[in-house]
Amino acid sequence: MIGPIAIAVSGGIDSLVSACLLKQQGIQTFGLHFLTGYETTVDPPYEKIHALGRQLGMPITVIDLKAQFKARVVDYFTAAYQIGKTPNPCLVCNPAIKFGALLAQARKLGASHLATGHYARVEADPRGRYRLRRGLDEKKDQSYFLSRLDQDQLARAIFPLGVLTKDQVRALAAKQGLQPLTRQESQDVCFIRDSTYADFLIRHSAFHPLPGDIVDTVGNRVGIHSGLHQYTVGQRRGINCPASQAYYVIRIDTRFNRLVVGFKDEQHATGCRVTDINWIAGVPEGPLAVDTRIRYRHRAVPARVSPLGQSSAEVKFDQPQTAVTPGQGAVFYRGDEVLGGGWIENS
Hints:
Number of helices: 7
CATH architecture of the largest domain: 3-Layer(aba) Sandwich
Number of domains: 3
CATH topology of the largest domain: Rossmann fold
Strand order of the largest sheet: 12-15-14-13-16-17
Mean pLDDT: 93
Radius of gyration: 21 Å
Low-confidence stretches: none
Largest sheet: 6 strands, antiparallel, barrel
Order of helices and strands: EHEHEHHEEEHEHHEEEEEEEEEE
Strand content: 25-35%
Helix content: 10-25%
């Protein structure tokens, strides 16, 4: 039974419209705004958050999740770079923070569910299993970032914007006179705003970059790098090694502190291994045909997934893919349903 619904209010247009839509349904609601510890001086102070509450006609409680955010998201982010992987913090934040620590606080305050401004849909099937589906707006669909939510979390998740387009959301905001605190779209790495990833890593962790060799795919030394943390698989800019063609990052070799580069036609991968998979739709009994998305801004491509036990799988793409990046999320779709998602281990 749905009781009061807590709404994660960031101050952006999406969360405001989500709150407004729920209130229009006559549902008892209250807002939660959580602190990460990485807010800047231009971020909304407490009084502006409470002003949002007056605008929405609901109380908004500010929740301090600084310690949890540092431990679960930021430390993961820095540790991934230290082992040569490219992290995706949103894939960790949603289950650990928004639908983990924040949902727990919401329930302590009496909420049965937590609503957010994500463009995605969640439905219960006839057997009571919760299914995650794409948002109807293909350009804004955020189901990729929610692929690691478990059944308990999906059961308590509400996404009011899943059936709307961004244009419809903007129109609703204008009609209701909603004034967001920021007009900027949310960013993938919300805790890095005033520096590069490389600078952040050095300033916020025990990170000591070492220079090393840049080699081509047959081992020829073609240059020197000043730290592997500055690179990700598929990257072209910043390699700065003269050649007949542009070099791309093929592999990050932390064992020998080498950056392996190659030409465009050398970066294709026929498949990858995926680990720590969260199977939303249940563990497949055998190989299955899916559409696989290997990063957020990647159109899902046909592939065959062969499970290896309960939480790993081999993925074989129908057509070779570029920039298959260790550390990024691989998310499996069947039509508009998210079957599950895990971490790319290697290609």
